Amino acid sequence: MFSEILKVMIPGVLTFLIGIALTPFVASFLYKHKLWKRRSRAVETTDHPKDVINPAFKAIHNEKDELNTPRIGGVLIWGSVLLTVFIFWIVSQFIDLPQSEIFDFVSRGQTWLPLFTLLIGSLLGLSDDLLQIFGKGKIFAEGIDRNIRVFAVTLISLVGAWWFFIKLGITAVSIPLTNFSIELGWLFIPFFIIVVLGTFSSSVIDGIDGLAGGVMMIIYAGFALIAFSKGLHDIAALCSAIAGGLLAFLWFNIPPARFYMGDTGMLGLTITLAVISFLTDSVLLLPVIAFPLVATSLSSAIQIVSKRAFNKKIFKIAPLHHHFEAIGWARERITMRYWVITGVCVMVGVIISLL
Fold it and tell me: Is 174 helix (H, G, I), strand (E, B) or coil?
């Protein structure tokens, strides 16, 4: 048991230390090459069309900071995680140390797929970020079109669904607090795709210093506990490593942020989160554990539907965290309360998974 605990905890600690060590080099590179957006989010909120200034958002938005603070800080997260994975794999394969093999958490049945989605999703997000930084013209300067991103995420989720259905033989999901499962058969594939797309839509939670990083770190720490309790130690180690990478990022992202996560962080993290919820057979607990993500995503959807159907806004600004800003909450208060609520939701979800 002690060696299993170490297997889960050490990757988190190592990823955190690697992230802290890499930050001066990453930050220097980002500032040297001025890798920040050329276009303000004041024209990009969900309740206003493109190229129209949203006065409510502009009133709470510090455009100077956004247009002078680098994006793509998310490379620090997934880069540190992948480096940790590589280090442990090298040690287990080529260095003869006592019990070194127990620290290798790369396995076909548990971590191949989440590592794939983390890498591919993050690279897709990186492409989007770089287009927003260097893109020329009306189309490319706005990054990858939303429909194209949804299509790309759908393709990634289709690969994941195929892996679960064909390679792992998983066709059912467990119902929390019962001994029953829902057998989906081939319907597991569209269900998987819908869950991944729904989780991907929650990436709109990014937008306030420290908000997304803290929320995602707590959620991944929760899934590390769930995976460990189910004996899925490789998944638990990976979740721990991701949480460690997020913690290193958060060290430099709390106000005032040294850099932003960008889509290269949130896109890979959200898709991978959905995959891990399936691997731990906790997908029906995902709305509980990740409730702040769900609420934020729903707020944007509700705002869009209300505007189109009734020409009326439900929130002053969508997504939800910007609504709180608009009614006068300080950014630090919003961030801390999101963290607290996330912590409570994770505890509830972990307890339910153990019952």
Answer: strand
